[in-house]
Specification:
Structural class: alpha/beta
Order of helices and strands: EHHHHHEHEEEHEHEHEEH
CATH class of the largest domain: Alpha Beta
Number of strands: 9
Distance between the termini: 6 Å
CATH architecture of the largest domain: 3-Layer(aba) Sandwich
Shape: elongated
Bound molecules: zinc ion
Number of helices: 10
Helix content: 25-40%
Length: about 240
């Protein structure tokens, strides 16, 4: 591939555009409505404290969509690049597991993982499966301490995990090709990542794959407009 060799440290920042291309709603604007609630009313610690069953019902609806969705050609292409032996790390804002199901192994989830549930008290975790989802009516409770499980994702008003941010920063510091794909780049701290990488390495090549121009377009070597499941595979096949 024209921009890459075995020395290249390739980092890819991915966001909602990837999942949307696999049929997963973005949960923004009209897309975010569920039974007249919007995401900002449900994805908060306050909402969970007030009505854990309602929040879980929404997550079960979302989980069902995720578990039935399939990786698209954009996901598959990134996994294929990794299979070819390139040094590639994905930093994703998505909470679904479509990158992993496509075959990517080096994936950092900035906002947590929707398939995981975490005990609010002892931190124990489990992974949802379709069977489990279909056979669970109530709010799941921890077998060790009897507290509620919550989705293991970052909610509004919560901070991102410090160690995860540090891992991303460490990776960006050594990155020489950065791809930004399917993300509007307006949510911090991710919005800052390309600028940080550029400061560390002014000769870095940044390629952007989005439906529209974003705040990082001005520092990108190239912005390729279009949906990631079309633009990414053709970029890598050069
Ligand atoms: Zn527990």
């Amino acid at each position: 591939m024209r921009e890459f060799d075995q020395e290249t440290k390739l980092t890819v920042i991915t966001g909602a555009g990837f999942s949307q291309a696999s049929g997963i709603p973005t949960f923004r604007g009209k897309d975010g409505l569920w039974k007249n609630y919007n995401a900002a009313d449900l994805a908060t610690p306050h909402a969970f404290k007030k009505d854990p069953k309602l929040v879980w019902e929404w997550y079960k609806w979302r989980l069902n969509i995720v578990l039935n969705a399939k990786p698209n050609t954009g996901h598959l292409k990134l996994a294929e690049v990794e299979d070819q032996g390139y040094d590639i790390v994905l930093l994703t804002q998505n909470v679904d597991d479509l990158h992993e199901r496509a075959g990517s192994r080096n994936v950092i989830h900035l906002h947590g993982e929707i398939r995981q549930a975490r005990c609010v008290c002892c931190g124990d975790r489990f992974s949802w499966t379709i069977d489990l989802l279909e056979n669970t009516e109530d709010v799941p409770k921890c077998k060790s301490c009897n507290s509620f499980y919550r989705p293991d994702v970052v909610w509004f008003s919560e901070s991102l995990n410090h160690n995860i941010i540090q891992n991303c920063v460490d990776r960006l510091t050594i990155t020489n090709v950065l791809i930004v794909a399917g993300t509007s780049m307006v949510v911090y701290p991710v919005a800052e990542f390309p600028f940080l990488a550029k400061r560390q390495n002014p000769s870095i090549k940044i390629f952007e794959f989005n439906l529209d121009y974003t705040p990082i377009s001005k520092i990108a070597s190239q912005t390729i407009l279009g949906s990631v499941e079309k633009t990414l595979p053709s970029f890598f096949s050069y």
